[in-house]
Structure formats: C-alpha cells, structure tokens
Amino acid sequence: MAESAADEKDPRIARIASAIRVIPDFPKQGIMFQDITTLLLDTKAFKDTVDLFVERYKGKAISVVAGIEARGFIFGPPIALAIGAKFVPMRKPKKLPGEVISEEYALEYGTDKIEMHVGAVQAGERALVIDDLIATGGTLCAAIRLLERVGVEIVECACVIELAELKGRERLGDKPLFVLVSPTCS
Prior knowledge:
The protein contains six helices and ten strands. It has helices at residues 11-19, 37-41, 43-57, 72-83, 138-149, 168-171; strands at 2-4, 21-24, 32-35, 64-68, 86-90, 100-107, 110-117, 126-134, 153-162, 177-181. The protein has a domain at 59-181: Rossmann fold (3-Layer(aba) Sandwich), CATH 3.40.50.2020.
C-alpha cells in the first residue's frame, strides 16, 4: 500500500522536508545521508512531524507504538503518549535487560538482530511500527516479524523519510507504510 503525506499537499510537509539536512558521502562515498538532527532543532518542524503522525493514528485503536532503535525512539514516545498507547523499544542486541526475544535480519554484509522484552506486548494488540527512515526495509521487516510472532497485529509502519529508490516498501509485502517525505535521489 503506497501512501505518503506529500500526496495530501499539507504545507507542513514542505517545512519538514526543508528541515532535513542532506550530507553527501556519509558514512561512505555515494551515500546521501538524510540527517534528522536538523529537523529536531527546528521546533516547529519537529512538532509538525509528530502532529501529522498523531492526526493519522489517533482513534485507530492502536495500543502499541513500537519504535526501532535509535531514531524511532525520538518519534515513538510522543506519538504513543498522544494516542494513548504504550511505547515498546525495539533494540539492538544486548541493550535490554531481562528476558528478550529477537529477530535476525540481513544487512548488505552479514546480519543483525533486533530485540524486545518478553511480555512487552500481548497477542491481539494493535501496533504501529515507527522509524525515522526506510531504505531497504530490512529493519522494519524484522520488527514486523518479531511482533507478529507473539500475535500482535501490525496496523501500519510509519517513517519520516523514504528512500524509494532502495525499494524497502516492496519488502514489506502487504503491510501498509506511511511516510512524510520522499526525497528524490541525487
């Protein structure tokens, strides 16, 4: 399901897009890094970002906002509080104390994992999965699999930025994805 807030011509989208700094060749040659730290410095654009997500998800019976480490932790908690949901961190290995379940996913070279606390979610709950950016979709797919393994229904995935040329949306299959900004590749 292809959906973007940019389709709605909301004037807040232009402000959000202009607040994101692009850093060429970081962390390596050929990468156009989408830096959200400048968005976080612009209080109006940051508030607009959170507000757009809250407006979309309020009243949709979402009980869990699952934020992917690390930048999903920035947007997830204020959205969760505003819609009356709990926030569940999806972390890299060995970052959560106590018992965890994990899901492995492929990287360009090798694999990685994300983890969540056992008991953080219950079967039948409805979740929003949030991160700052979708590129290849590997991390979002791992988060979806992890939540579905314990019986959670994925309502939607949400990202501030989509790098459409990397086709991450296609990897999500039938899971809907909502994004605010889709920069053109350079």
